[in-house]
Amino acid sequence: MNVEKIFASFGLRWSAGALALCLLASTSMTAQAATFAVLQQPALPTAKAARAVLLGLARAGERLVAVGERGIVLLSDDSGMTWRQARVPVSVSLTAVQFVDAEQGWAVGHLGVVLHTEDGGETWHKQLDGERAAALAVQAAERDADQSGGASNLAQARQMVDDGPDKPFLDLYFSDRLHGYIVGAYNQIYRTDDGGRSWRPWMQHVNNPQGLNLYGIRASGNDLLLVGERGLLLRSTDAGHSFQPLKSPYEGSFFGLLCTRGGALIAYGLRGNAWWSEDRGSSWRRLDTGIESTLATAIELRDGSLLLASQSGEFLFSHDQGRSFDKRQSRSGGTVAAVQQAADGGLASVGLSGVATDQDPRASAKP
């Protein structure tokens, strides 16, 4: 196992520096505990929740929802000025969150946890964990045991059961209230067509023979795209039935993918690397970001400009579709794991030091 995979097993990106080390220290003992009691222990209320390590941030209508260590979920209804803690049934670290509207949302995290909310993040319930995910993988492999590669798939699925629920989910994509995917370490990918009431292992639909970590999943038009470690790029053109590799321009890991409203793609990752495609991922050109820090997140702002943020807190704005970038440091002065444009047009971010807001004049248009 390489260093990056070790960190990924805790839902981390090994290049995140202090952020990764902090989370590793806070979760490694939990991940090794035989009983995995945190899967049944609700997140504890704490007055310091807004300063906790947070990894994911999403919009639920005009509300901001942040997720992070020990099952902490925070809600803000005033564009990030104040935050309150939601009720969560587990106390494992959460890595990513997405809402399809103001009410329906999902969060994923360590130990194979998937959470769902129907009330804008006020309350959550567990839909899946690593134990159930492994059992589903065994059931699917047993059904397909007589197919090509069936014996190997069954052995891998049984190994998941033996390992216990130690593998995190790292990202998710839902197209609507019913249809979605969750992805994570070691080629983990599961699909739902009923809003998460049931999940199907989808690993055999992904051409990833080395079992590389899947760090991001997004949709662009009718395509679904996956990015991962060691330059992994995969695309589905058949509604997710199969994911085939794309020729990668880069051997380092991609940690995320931005799909712009105009159909362009930006894959981003280690050491400031970002790559642009205008032909659905068939070819790529390198973007000159001018930084060496790992890029953690990217969004398209309401005015059509692009924002890439590094884990060391550098904000890169582009008003010409990635041809050039205007760099500045986040006013929060801390690390950045995720960023969103709030309802008032300002920027909210989360990271090692919790939540932060940053009123940027280039992103101040009202919705």
UniProtKB/TrEMBL annotation:
Keyword Transcription applies: no
Alphabetical UniProt keywords: Hydrolase, Photosynthesis, Photosystem II, Signal
Pfam family, one: PSII_BNR
GO BP annotation list: photosynthesis
Signal peptide as annotated in the record: 1-33
Record's GO cellular component terms: photosystem II
One GO MF term: hydrolase activity
Location of the Photosynthesis system II assembly factor Ycf48/Hcf136-like domain: 67-126, 162-333
InterPro entries referenced in this protein's UniProt entry, alphabetically: PSII_CF48-like_dom, WD40/YVTN_repeat-like_dom_sf
Record-linked PANTHER family: PHOTOSYSTEM II STABILITY/ASSEMBLY FACTOR HCF136, CHLOROPLASTIC, PHOTOSYSTEM II STABILITY_ASSEMBLY FACTOR HCF136, CHLOROPLASTIC
Protein name: Glycosyl hydrolase
Species annotation: Pseudomonas lini
